[in-house]
Amino acid sequence: MRVPVGEQAWERDGHKHYPGFLRDNLLIAYDRENSVQARLATYLVTWSKDAFYGRFVEHGTSQAEARPFLRPAYDAVASIAAAAVRNTIEDRLREATGG
Q1: CA end-to-end span of the chain
Q2: In terms of Cα–Cα distance, which of 73, 76, 57 is closest to 65?
């Protein structure tokens, strides 16, 4: 929801990019290597190779100002996610202890 969306379509190297292309090409993948089964789930958020320019939007360039969207999105939900984890743990503890 926080990904900047342009106003015009454009083409580069035969690839058409419509307004919202970067948003539609965000990838969220489970990171098996850094996760621990039944204990820790890690996810990676990135963009497809056709939307490589997402890093330039997020971090800026020498000619374009940064328009961050990944970090602000994370910051916006970090406390909500932490509360959900805490609630799940408390629920499981109540189940395990019978009250």
Answers
A1: 40
A2: 57
Continuous segment of H or E residues that includes residue 89 = helix 70-97
Give the Cα separation of 69 and 2 in Å (integer): 5
Domain ranges for the chain, please list them: 10-97
Q: What is the pTM of this model?
A: 0.68
Q: Which amino acid is at 97?
A: T
Q: What pLDDT score was predicted for residue 14?
A: 87
Please give the structure tokens belonging to residue 41: 């789930």
Residue 92 has which token pair?
């499981």
Contact 71, 83 (CB under 8 A): no
pLDDT of 12 higher than 80: yes
